[in-house]
Amino acid sequence: MQYRIPLHPPDISPEVQQALGAEIAAAGHSQQKAFSDFYAALRPHFPAREMLALNSCTAALHLGLRLLGVGEGDRVLCPTFTFAATVNAILYQQATPVFIDSEAGSWNMDPVLVEQALADQQRQGKKVAAIVVVHAYGTPARLDELKALASAFQLPLLEDAAAAFGAYYKGAMVGTLGDCGAYSFNYNKIITTAGGGLLVSKQPGLIEQADYLAGQARAEAPYYHHEQMGYNYRMNGLAAQLGALQLAHFRAKLMRKKQLFTTYRQLLEGVGGIAFQELSDDVESNYWLTSFLAPSEEAKEKVLRRLRGQGIECRMLWRPMHCQPAYSHFPFYSSGVAEELFQRGISLPSGVGLTESQQQAIVELVEQSLLAD
Ligand SMILES: *Cc1c(COP(=O)(O)O)cnc(C)c1O
Hints:
Bound molecules: pyridoxal-5'-phosphate
Structural class: alpha/beta
Largest sheet: 8 strands, mixed
Order of helices and strands: HHEHEHEHEHEEEEEHHHEEEHEEHEH
Distance between the termini: 28 Å
Mean pLDDT: 94
Number of helices: 12
Radius of gyration: 21 Å
Protein backbone atom coordinates (compact mmCIF):
# COMPACT_ATOMS: atom_id res chain seq x y z
CA MET A 1 0.00 0.00 0.00
CA GLN A 2 1.16 3.53 -0.83
CA TYR A 3 0.73 5.83 2.15
CA ARG A 4 0.03 9.53 1.85
CA ILE A 5 2.15 10.09 4.97
CA PRO A 6 4.81 7.40 5.24
CA LEU A 7 6.26 6.34 8.58
CA HIS A 8 9.82 7.48 8.03
CA PRO A 9 10.80 8.42 4.49
CA PRO A 10 14.50 9.05 3.85
CA ASP A 11 15.37 12.72 4.05
CA ILE A 12 17.52 13.42 1.01
CA SER A 13 17.32 17.12 0.27
CA PRO A 14 17.51 18.59 -3.25
CA GLU A 15 20.95 19.98 -2.30
CA VAL A 16 22.17 16.51 -1.39
CA GLN A 17 20.67 15.03 -4.55
CA GLN A 18 22.39 17.64 -6.65
CA ALA A 19 25.72 17.25 -4.90
CA LEU A 20 25.48 13.48 -5.19
CA GLY A 21 24.78 13.82 -8.90
CA ALA A 22 27.97 15.85 -9.24
CA GLU A 23 29.90 13.23 -7.29
CA ILE A 24 28.65 10.45 -9.54
CA ALA A 25 29.60 12.50 -12.57
CA ALA A 26 33.09 12.91 -11.13
CA ALA A 27 33.37 9.19 -10.34
CA GLY A 28 36.27 7.04 -11.39
CA HIS A 29 38.87 8.44 -9.07
CA SER A 30 36.35 9.32 -6.36
CA GLN A 31 36.04 6.07 -4.40
CA GLN A 32 38.90 7.07 -2.13
CA LYS A 33 37.63 10.62 -1.79
CA ALA A 34 34.14 9.33 -0.95
CA PHE A 35 35.51 7.38 2.01
CA SER A 36 37.80 10.13 3.23
CA ASP A 37 34.84 12.55 3.08
CA PHE A 38 32.63 10.09 4.96
CA TYR A 39 35.15 9.37 7.69
CA ALA A 40 35.90 13.09 8.04
CA ALA A 41 32.18 13.77 8.51
CA LEU A 42 31.93 10.96 11.08
CA ARG A 43 35.09 11.90 12.99
CA PRO A 44 33.53 14.67 15.16
CA HIS A 45 31.00 12.09 16.40
CA PHE A 46 33.70 9.54 17.25
CA PRO A 47 36.80 11.47 18.30
CA ALA A 48 38.38 8.54 20.14
CA ARG A 49 37.11 5.57 18.16
CA GLU A 50 38.37 3.68 15.18
CA MET A 51 35.59 3.02 12.71
CA LEU A 52 34.75 1.01 9.63
CA ALA A 53 32.03 1.70 7.08
CA LEU A 54 30.17 -1.48 6.07
CA ASN A 55 27.26 -2.44 3.86
CA SER A 56 24.86 -2.95 6.79
CA CYS A 57 24.54 -2.82 10.53
CA THR A 58 23.89 -6.56 10.47
CA ALA A 59 27.37 -6.99 8.99
CA ALA A 60 28.79 -4.72 11.71
CA LEU A 61 27.08 -6.78 14.42
CA HIS A 62 28.35 -10.02 12.93
CA LEU A 63 31.95 -8.83 12.62
CA GLY A 64 31.78 -7.34 16.12
CA LEU A 65 30.63 -10.64 17.61
CA ARG A 66 33.21 -12.66 15.72
CA LEU A 67 36.07 -10.36 16.74
CA LEU A 68 34.95 -10.22 20.36
CA GLY A 69 35.44 -13.97 20.40
CA VAL A 70 31.90 -15.32 20.06
CA GLY A 71 31.95 -18.74 18.41
CA GLU A 72 30.13 -22.00 17.96
CA GLY A 73 28.17 -23.20 20.98
CA ASP A 74 28.61 -19.98 22.95
CA ARG A 75 25.68 -18.15 24.47
CA VAL A 76 25.04 -14.47 23.91
CA LEU A 77 22.57 -12.40 25.93
CA CYS A 78 20.41 -9.99 23.93
CA PRO A 79 17.03 -8.31 24.34
CA THR A 80 13.95 -10.13 23.10
CA PHE A 81 12.56 -6.71 22.18
CA THR A 82 14.63 -5.98 19.08
CA PHE A 83 14.77 -6.38 15.33
CA ALA A 84 15.72 -9.84 14.02
CA ALA A 85 19.11 -8.62 12.77
CA THR A 86 20.47 -8.66 16.32
CA VAL A 87 19.61 -12.34 16.69
CA ASN A 88 20.68 -13.33 13.20
CA ALA A 89 24.17 -11.92 13.75
CA ILE A 90 24.49 -14.17 16.82
CA LEU A 91 23.27 -17.17 14.82
CA TYR A 92 25.74 -16.47 11.99
CA GLN A 93 28.44 -17.26 14.57
CA GLN A 94 26.63 -20.50 15.44
CA ALA A 95 26.10 -19.20 18.94
CA THR A 96 22.85 -19.41 20.92
CA PRO A 97 20.92 -16.24 21.79
CA VAL A 98 19.59 -15.95 25.34
CA PHE A 99 16.68 -13.51 25.32
CA ILE A 100 16.17 -10.94 28.05
CA ASP A 101 12.90 -9.11 28.61
CA SER A 102 12.50 -5.32 28.72
CA GLU A 103 12.02 -2.97 31.62
CA ALA A 104 8.70 -1.14 31.57
CA GLY A 105 9.89 2.49 31.37
CA SER A 106 12.58 2.61 28.68
CA TRP A 107 11.48 -0.60 26.89
CA ASN A 108 15.15 -1.62 26.83
CA MET A 109 16.86 -4.73 28.21
CA ASP A 110 16.28 -5.01 31.97
CA PRO A 111 19.62 -5.17 33.85
CA VAL A 112 17.98 -7.03 36.75
CA LEU A 113 17.04 -9.88 34.39
CA VAL A 114 20.49 -9.74 32.78
CA GLU A 115 22.04 -10.37 36.17
CA GLN A 116 19.65 -13.24 36.88
CA ALA A 117 20.36 -14.75 33.47
CA LEU A 118 24.13 -14.52 33.90
CA ALA A 119 23.97 -16.23 37.29
CA ASP A 120 21.55 -18.87 36.02
CA GLN A 121 23.58 -19.65 32.89
CA GLN A 122 26.67 -19.95 35.05
CA ARG A 123 24.85 -22.38 37.40
CA GLN A 124 23.86 -24.46 34.36
CA GLY A 125 27.49 -24.59 33.28
CA LYS A 126 26.84 -22.70 30.03
CA LYS A 127 29.48 -20.48 28.52
CA VAL A 128 28.15 -16.97 27.97
CA ALA A 129 30.55 -15.18 25.58
CA ALA A 130 29.06 -11.68 25.22
CA ILE A 131 26.20 -9.32 26.00
CA VAL A 132 24.47 -7.42 23.19
CA VAL A 133 22.45 -4.37 24.18
CA VAL A 134 20.00 -2.61 21.84
CA HIS A 135 18.94 1.02 22.16
CA ALA A 136 15.33 0.56 21.12
CA TYR A 137 13.93 3.19 18.72
CA GLY A 138 16.91 5.45 19.46
CA THR A 139 16.45 5.52 23.24
CA PRO A 140 19.57 4.60 25.23
CA ALA A 141 19.51 1.52 27.46
CA ARG A 142 20.92 1.42 31.03
CA LEU A 143 24.55 1.33 30.04
CA ASP A 144 26.10 1.88 33.49
CA GLU A 145 24.36 -1.16 34.95
CA LEU A 146 25.03 -3.29 31.88
CA LYS A 147 28.69 -2.31 31.73
CA ALA A 148 29.09 -3.15 35.42
CA LEU A 149 27.56 -6.60 34.83
CA ALA A 150 29.70 -7.19 31.75
CA SER A 151 32.81 -6.37 33.68
CA ALA A 152 31.79 -8.40 36.77
CA PHE A 153 31.34 -11.46 34.52
CA GLN A 154 34.33 -10.52 32.32
CA LEU A 155 32.24 -10.35 29.17
CA PRO A 156 32.48 -8.01 26.20
CA LEU A 157 29.54 -5.66 25.63
CA LEU A 158 28.43 -5.00 22.06
CA GLU A 159 26.01 -2.16 21.42
CA ASP A 160 23.44 -2.53 18.67
CA ALA A 161 23.00 1.20 18.15
CA ALA A 162 21.46 0.58 14.72
CA ALA A 163 18.75 3.19 15.12
CA ALA A 164 20.50 5.27 17.77
CA PHE A 165 23.07 7.33 15.87
CA GLY A 166 23.05 10.71 17.64
CA ALA A 167 21.59 9.38 20.92
CA TYR A 168 23.60 10.07 24.07
CA TYR A 169 24.08 8.42 27.44
CA LYS A 170 25.58 10.70 30.09
CA GLY A 171 27.07 12.87 27.37
CA ALA A 172 28.62 10.09 25.26
CA MET A 173 27.19 8.82 21.97
CA VAL A 174 25.66 5.39 22.52
CA GLY A 175 27.62 2.76 20.64
CA THR A 176 30.88 4.15 22.03
CA LEU A 177 30.47 2.87 25.59
CA GLY A 178 30.75 -0.86 24.95
CA ASP A 179 33.64 -2.80 23.42
CA CYS A 180 32.08 -2.38 19.98
CA GLY A 181 29.18 -0.39 18.61
CA ALA A 182 27.18 -0.96 15.42
CA TYR A 183 25.07 1.63 13.57
CA SER A 184 22.75 1.32 10.60
CA PHE A 185 22.49 3.70 7.66
CA ASN A 186 19.64 1.73 6.16
CA TYR A 187 16.96 3.45 4.12
CA ASN A 188 14.67 4.17 7.07
CA LYS A 189 17.24 5.22 9.67
CA ILE A 190 18.08 8.76 10.83
CA ILE A 191 21.10 8.95 8.52
CA THR A 192 20.82 6.89 5.37
CA THR A 193 23.37 5.82 2.81
CA ALA A 194 20.52 3.92 1.09
CA GLY A 195 21.97 0.86 2.83
CA GLY A 196 25.01 0.73 5.05
CA GLY A 197 26.44 0.36 8.51
CA LEU A 198 29.29 1.35 10.75
CA LEU A 199 31.36 -0.57 13.27
CA VAL A 200 33.25 1.37 15.93
CA SER A 201 35.58 0.07 18.59
CA LYS A 202 38.25 1.19 21.00
CA GLN A 203 39.92 -2.24 21.10
CA PRO A 204 43.33 -1.98 19.47
CA GLY A 205 43.45 -3.82 16.16
CA LEU A 206 39.80 -4.82 16.09
CA ILE A 207 38.77 -2.44 13.33
CA GLU A 208 41.76 -3.43 11.22
CA GLN A 209 40.78 -7.09 11.56
CA ALA A 210 37.17 -6.23 10.74
CA ASP A 211 38.28 -4.43 7.58
CA TYR A 212 40.28 -7.45 6.52
CA LEU A 213 37.40 -9.88 7.10
CA ALA A 214 34.92 -7.52 5.41
CA GLY A 215 37.02 -7.59 2.24
CA GLN A 216 36.78 -11.40 1.77
CA ALA A 217 39.82 -11.78 4.06
CA ARG A 218 42.12 -11.05 1.18
CA ALA A 219 45.63 -11.02 2.61
CA GLU A 220 48.60 -8.94 1.43
CA ALA A 221 50.20 -10.88 -1.42
CA PRO A 222 51.06 -10.37 -5.09
CA TYR A 223 48.17 -12.73 -5.91
CA TYR A 224 44.74 -13.50 -4.37
CA HIS A 225 45.63 -15.04 -1.04
CA HIS A 226 43.23 -16.10 1.73
CA GLU A 227 44.05 -17.64 5.09
CA GLN A 228 40.61 -17.29 6.65
CA MET A 229 36.99 -17.23 5.61
CA GLY A 230 35.88 -13.66 4.96
CA TYR A 231 32.78 -11.72 3.94
CA ASN A 232 31.73 -9.20 1.33
CA TYR A 233 30.74 -6.59 3.91
CA ARG A 234 32.44 -3.37 2.80
CA MET A 235 30.47 -0.23 2.03
CA ASN A 236 30.48 1.04 -1.54
CA GLY A 237 31.84 4.47 -2.43
CA LEU A 238 28.55 5.90 -3.58
CA ALA A 239 26.95 5.06 -0.25
CA ALA A 240 29.89 6.65 1.56
CA GLN A 241 29.48 9.85 -0.45
CA LEU A 242 25.78 9.96 0.33
CA GLY A 243 26.61 9.48 4.01
CA ALA A 244 29.11 12.34 3.98
CA LEU A 245 26.56 14.66 2.42
CA GLN A 246 23.82 13.65 4.86
CA LEU A 247 25.96 14.15 7.93
CA ALA A 248 26.51 17.79 7.05
CA HIS A 249 22.94 18.53 8.11
CA PHE A 250 22.76 16.16 11.04
CA ARG A 251 22.38 18.65 13.92
CA ALA A 252 19.39 20.33 12.30
CA LYS A 253 17.82 16.95 11.63
CA LEU A 254 18.29 15.87 15.23
CA MET A 255 16.63 19.05 16.48
CA ARG A 256 13.69 18.54 14.16
CA LYS A 257 13.28 14.93 15.36
CA LYS A 258 13.20 16.12 18.95
CA GLN A 259 10.66 18.78 18.11
CA LEU A 260 8.39 16.20 16.43
CA PHE A 261 8.59 13.95 19.48
CA THR A 262 8.02 16.79 21.94
CA THR A 263 4.96 18.00 20.06
CA TYR A 264 3.48 14.50 19.84
CA ARG A 265 4.10 13.96 23.54
CA GLN A 266 2.71 17.33 24.64
CA LEU A 267 -0.46 16.82 22.66
CA LEU A 268 -1.01 13.13 23.34
CA GLU A 269 0.42 12.26 26.74
CA GLY A 270 -2.39 11.19 29.03
CA VAL A 271 -5.00 11.29 26.25
CA GLY A 272 -7.11 8.18 26.74
CA GLY A 273 -4.29 6.54 28.76
CA ILE A 274 -1.42 6.84 26.26
CA ALA A 275 2.10 6.24 27.65
CA PHE A 276 5.34 7.25 25.91
CA GLN A 277 8.76 5.58 26.12
CA GLU A 278 10.32 7.07 29.27
CA LEU A 279 13.54 9.06 29.01
CA SER A 280 15.67 9.27 32.16
CA ASP A 281 17.75 12.35 32.95
CA ASP A 282 20.88 10.42 31.92
CA VAL A 283 19.86 10.03 28.31
CA GLU A 284 19.19 12.02 25.20
CA SER A 285 17.31 10.04 22.57
CA ASN A 286 17.71 10.71 18.85
CA TYR A 287 13.90 10.37 18.60
CA TRP A 288 14.15 8.09 15.59
CA LEU A 289 10.52 6.93 15.73
CA THR A 290 8.03 8.49 18.09
CA SER A 291 6.26 5.55 19.67
CA PHE A 292 3.70 5.13 22.42
CA LEU A 293 1.57 2.54 24.16
CA ALA A 294 -2.19 2.64 23.71
CA PRO A 295 -4.17 1.72 26.83
CA SER A 296 -5.06 -1.71 25.42
CA GLU A 297 -4.62 -3.99 22.44
CA GLU A 298 -8.11 -3.09 21.20
CA ALA A 299 -7.32 0.62 21.46
CA LYS A 300 -4.12 0.07 19.50
CA GLU A 301 -6.07 -1.70 16.76
CA LYS A 302 -8.50 1.22 16.61
CA VAL A 303 -5.70 3.76 16.22
CA LEU A 304 -3.94 1.71 13.53
CA ARG A 305 -7.17 1.26 11.58
CA ARG A 306 -8.14 4.93 11.80
CA LEU A 307 -4.71 6.23 10.72
CA ARG A 308 -4.16 3.70 7.96
CA GLY A 309 -7.66 4.39 6.66
CA GLN A 310 -6.53 7.98 6.15
CA GLY A 311 -3.40 6.90 4.25
CA ILE A 312 -1.13 7.49 7.22
CA GLU A 313 1.51 4.87 7.80
CA CYS A 314 1.98 3.72 11.37
CA ARG A 315 3.52 0.57 12.68
CA MET A 316 3.24 -1.84 15.56
CA LEU A 317 6.31 -2.18 17.76
CA TRP A 318 8.60 -5.20 17.33
CA ARG A 319 7.12 -8.57 17.98
CA PRO A 320 9.49 -10.02 20.60
CA MET A 321 12.06 -12.53 19.39
CA HIS A 322 10.96 -15.24 21.83
CA CYS A 323 7.53 -15.17 20.10
CA GLN A 324 8.98 -15.65 16.62
CA PRO A 325 8.69 -19.14 15.15
CA ALA A 326 12.32 -18.94 14.03
CA TYR A 327 13.64 -18.19 17.51
CA SER A 328 11.06 -19.36 20.06
CA HIS A 329 13.14 -22.38 21.13
CA PHE A 330 15.97 -20.30 22.60
CA PRO A 331 16.26 -19.57 26.34
CA PHE A 332 14.28 -16.58 27.60
CA TYR A 333 14.25 -14.64 30.88
CA SER A 334 10.82 -13.08 31.09
CA SER A 335 8.96 -10.29 32.85
CA GLY A 336 6.11 -10.03 30.35
CA VAL A 337 6.95 -6.44 29.36
CA ALA A 338 8.01 -7.03 25.72
CA GLU A 339 4.81 -8.90 24.91
CA GLU A 340 2.81 -6.01 26.29
CA LEU A 341 4.83 -3.54 24.20
CA PHE A 342 3.92 -5.57 21.14
CA GLN A 343 0.25 -5.70 22.13
CA ARG A 344 -0.12 -1.98 22.85
CA GLY A 345 2.66 -0.17 20.96
CA ILE A 346 2.43 2.10 17.91
CA SER A 347 5.07 4.10 16.01
CA LEU A 348 3.86 7.33 14.43
CA PRO A 349 5.13 9.06 11.28
CA SER A 350 8.43 10.65 12.32
CA GLY A 351 10.06 11.83 9.11
CA VAL A 352 11.68 15.26 9.36
CA GLY A 353 9.60 16.41 6.37
CA LEU A 354 6.32 16.00 8.30
CA THR A 355 4.50 19.33 8.29
CA GLU A 356 2.87 20.93 11.32
CA SER A 357 -0.59 20.49 9.85
CA GLN A 358 0.07 16.84 9.05
CA GLN A 359 1.25 16.26 12.60
CA GLN A 360 -1.81 18.06 13.93
CA ALA A 361 -4.08 15.89 11.78
CA ILE A 362 -2.36 12.71 13.02
CA VAL A 363 -2.77 13.78 16.64
CA GLU A 364 -6.46 14.48 16.10
CA LEU A 365 -7.02 11.09 14.49
CA VAL A 366 -5.28 9.34 17.41
CA GLU A 367 -7.43 11.28 19.89
CA GLN A 368 -10.62 10.52 17.98
CA SER A 369 -9.90 6.81 17.83
CA LEU A 370 -9.18 6.64 21.57
CA LEU A 371 -11.99 8.83 22.76
CA ALA A 372 -14.71 7.41 20.49
CA ASP A 373 -16.50 4.34 21.83
C1 LIG B 1 17.66 -1.42 11.54
C2 LIG B 1 18.15 -2.30 12.64
C3 LIG B 1 19.15 -3.27 12.40
C4 LIG B 1 19.63 -3.66 11.02
O1 LIG B 1 20.32 -2.68 10.34
P1 LIG B 1 20.76 -2.98 8.82
O2 LIG B 1 21.66 -1.83 8.49
O3 LIG B 1 19.52 -3.00 8.01
O4 LIG B 1 21.47 -4.29 8.80
C5 LIG B 1 19.65 -3.97 13.48
N1 LIG B 1 19.21 -3.77 14.73
C6 LIG B 1 18.25 -2.86 15.00
C7 LIG B 1 17.83 -2.65 16.42
C8 LIG B 1 17.68 -2.09 13.96
O5 LIG B 1 16.71 -1.21 14.25
